[in-house]
Specification:
Blueprint lengths: L11 H22 L5 H8 L3 H13 L3 E3 L6 E3 L1 H13 L2 H16 L2 E8 L2 E8 L15 E3 L4 H9 L2 H10 L13 H14 L2 E4 L6 E9 L5 E10 H5 L5 H15 L14
């Protein structure tokens, strides 16, 4: 016979454990967003009672998820969290994850989605997803190399480097003109990279192929360094009509994959040229 207050098949102990888990995860998320905190801050931020807070903190410390001496002043993430993070990073392949996102981008935006890695002064295309039925589209580019300065992928990658490092790379590039709109002036290229840093994405406005437009963004590792770059590309007139949507989605996808790699920089930490 079941209680009028308890639905049949529901385990009250399981319900309580789930509640404790939820609160414990909230504490870990709070600590991961900042640094060491005091117990009172946790109580105030999460709206927990003092007794519940200390009970959960004790459990997390016992399991190695918190480094805490039992006082109320300094609580921080413990060794077990580091182990979990390292295991997650080791098992996460950004190229595989990004390729799955590319298929979704192509389907959502009805354009080709691409990914490339840097090899010296060039970007090498390693993924090309096009699930559309467009009669006019970007040709298959797997394995094709393109110069850094003439693609949104290359410019996004450069913009994700530290400014001094990007400047040094730009100094070594041969700024060959591929189309009438290719940037061949180093000062202008640096200015465009500065704009890309602020926006979070780069643009290729017919600079690699005259009738093709691309928006690209870099995928970063846990140190903020670029790993690769992704873009959405298509005929210039058609892409220009979607310019309010494509850069936003490309940037969001690049940031999602970057965060899986441990990248957590805030938007206001974008470096500026001195």
């Amino acid at each position: 016979m079941t209680s009028n207050n308890q639905p049949s098949g529901v385990d009250p102990d399981l319900d309580r454990r789930a509640g404790t888990l939820e609160r414990g995860l909230a504490i870990l998320e709070m600590l991961s967003a900042g640094g060491p905190v005091a117990a009172n801050e946790i109580i105030e931020e999460l709206g927990l009672s003092r007794s519940a807070t200390y009970r959960i903190l004790g459990l997390l410390r016992q399991r190695g998820y918190l480094d805490w001496d039992g006082s109320a002043d300094r609580i921080q993430l413990g060794e077990q969290v580091v182990k979990l993070g390292m295991a997650a990073l080791a098992s996460f392949d950004p190229f595989v994850a990004a390729q799955a996102y590319l298929r979704d981008l192509s389907s959502e935006l009805s354009e080709a989605a691409l990914m490339a890695v840097r090899d010296g002064p060039q970007m090498v295309y390693i993924a090309h997803e096009d699930v559309t039925d467009n009669l006019i589209a970007v040709r298959r580019l797997l394995g094709v190399r393109r110069p850094l300065h003439a693609t949104s992928l290359g410019k996004a990658y450069l913009a994700a480097l530290p400014i001094d490092e990007a400047d040094a790379v730009v100094d070594q590039l041969s700024l060959v003109s591929l189309t009438p709109t290719t940037i061949t002036d180093r000062a202008r290229l640096r200015a465009e990279l500065d704009e890309a840093r602020v926006r979070g994405y780069a643009v290729d406005n017919g600079e690699n192929e005259p009738d093709v437009m691309c928006f690209g963004a870099a995928i970063r590792d846990d140190h903020g360094r670029p790993v690769c770059a992704i873009s959405v590309a298509g005929p210039r007139d058609r892409i220009a009509e979607k310019r309010d949507v494509i850069p936003v989605r490309v940037t969001e996808v690049a940031l999602s994959v970057s965060r899986r790699l441990g990248f957590h920089a805030a938007p206001d930490t974008v470096p500026f040229r001195r």
